[in-house]
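for the record, two folds in this file. i put them one after another cuz i was lazy. first one right below, seq on top, structure tokens after. the second one comes after a little note so u can tell where it starts
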Amino acid sequence: MTEASRPEPSVPRLTSLSHGGGCGCKIAPGVLSELLKRSTPPALFPDLLVGTETADDAAVYRLNDEQAIVATTDFFMPIVDDPYDFGRIAATNALSDVYAMGGKPILALALVGMPINVLPHDTIAAVLRGGEAVCADAGIPVAGGHSIDSVEPIYGLAALGIVHPARVKRNAAARAGDVLILGKPLGVGVLSAALKKNRLDDAGYAQMIATTTKLNRPGAELAALSAVHALTDVTGFGLLGHTLELSRGAGLTARIRYAALPWLAGVDALAEEGIFTGASGRNWAAYGADVRLAPGLPAVAQALLTDPQTSGGLLVACAPEAVDDVLACFRADGFDRAAVIGEMTDGPARIDVA
């Protein structure tokens, strides 16, 4: 961690004020699924192109034949102690849901919950500035929001975007034979756990901030490629959880090649020391029955594959002939670690990792 990322001695660490951090704060997928089963099904709205039926990244509502609104919200507790970085990460993560639908953000509203008598007002203001900086980078305003006095610090955005109705990219439209491409390296949860244990060095902190504050802008360009069939982002449920959503939506088997997965530097060594977030175990408990891990994988494979990714990368399912175009789209925007990690095949809705 850099000196700039350390709070003053008299100021409590942001991460010390929350019971979890980043997308690792998500309700466990099994619990969430049970809660949603008890919800009242929405009425039929013919212009609601994407709702809750496939656990997609955002809602999409058609305005006319040329325009649809993408609407999403995402917020969480601190994953880092630097307030400006916390704001940047949370805002980047929230806007990712718009890009994951193939949309382009148009505005955001801030969602703020802070222990107002515990944190200095300058600290809270720095969180807001961080979010505003990311939105400015995305070319949109933070046009309002809502705030409460909260026991734990919480920040995020409600974000709106726009997309052509014919270019909406869902997480449920993958086809047999599609290639899977991941836009960002994995391991954010491991690095965040190391940070909380004071085990993350300056280089590790720098790479964690770099990846979690990089906007998934290629999503809007990928939407223009007809050979891109499905799109999502990899966040709190880990690579396996979000890939399983693709598999279940399409009724196909996803095959992942472990050796092809890109990792942030140092993640494997930290994992071998047992440094993980609690969310890894909760994730596996929720969906591990639908995953087949081949013999011979590293002992830490299960925990790494379920590692929650705060502000993670886009996961693309595309026809084989579009692989070069998809990789070129990523690399044109600086996603140099984008990689082919597997494919979709006929078979039951599950994941095979070899």
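(here's the note) second protein begins now
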Amino acid sequence: MRHQIHDLLAPLPGTARQIHSFHFGPQQAERKIYIQSSLHADELPGMLVAWHLKLRLAELQAQGRLRSEIVLVPVANPVGLEQVLMDLPLGRYELESGQNFNRWFVDLSEEVGNEIEGQLKDDPKHNLQLIRSCLRKALARQTASTQLQSQRLTLQRLACDADMVLDLHCDFEAVAHLYTTPEAWPQVEPLARYIGAEASLLATDSGGQSFDECFTLLWWQLQQRFGEHFEIPPGSFSVTVELRGQGDVNHGLASLDCQAIIDYLTQYGAIAGETAPLPELSYPATPLAGVEPVATSVGGLLVFAALPGEYLEAGQLVAEVIDPINDSVTPVHCNNAGLMYARSLRRMATAGMVIAHVAGTEAYRSGYLLSP
């Protein structure tokens, strides 16, 4: 194992933070896997899974079973991890800028496209190596003027040349689910099976330039630009894995999730060993544009009638919102049928608040598809 320390831009003297990356397997391997956790710093199930993975990967390396380089970043957001206000962790948004830590990673598709134009060949392997080299150089030329930009650039530089990127998150109260692209779904489906994902949500571009999409979108955009004349292989696929809810931090679940990722990496060929049998897929992949954010029009006490993992029919009751002053009880229903994969942790709703998400089968939304 190789342990690397990456210094972030310090916003003030004496306040420097670091990203720690742990590198396993052969350094010059043909393929590279990148795994990080807790980019939203108040989402901690993935951090415990990453710790279990760190121990397992060290064992597998000692046994000589690692065929790919595997880079692990257990604490992807030291900036947000320290944001605790009156005993409440606030790890989703940077307090200084108000920006979501998992949005607005730098888009270099046009810059890389301009640089490779005239250098592409009929050889897809040459094109793959060329694009990765130009992407690394383009990221190296980027400069950060804030701590947040420094953190984003550090993570992008670590993952930019990986064949596979796994970004471990969780929701508020939720079943296991994941986000990836339709193009990557054939490669990702085994992970969905091993991890027990009850919803798999697909979008090529969900808006917001999140960490996972800053890689897949670059390759997709280069394919759109040059694909008629040159073969541009899909040089990277990314998955955001949502490991249930924020309270699901325990060794039992983390051990199961760790084994699921090990099984997937074995099936992928990154780890030598016998491939574990594939479980059944709990729920078919559906478009992210088919997800209904169920919102309440009034504020009050939020009393749920449906559980995460429950399939809801169109018009089914999701929750009631109670005003304890005037005694009004307002039912909140879903408009579309689908699997309710996540719901809010809060039990006092405000007017207009999204209280749950239901994965429907038909796309009906467009534009920005993510939560704030």
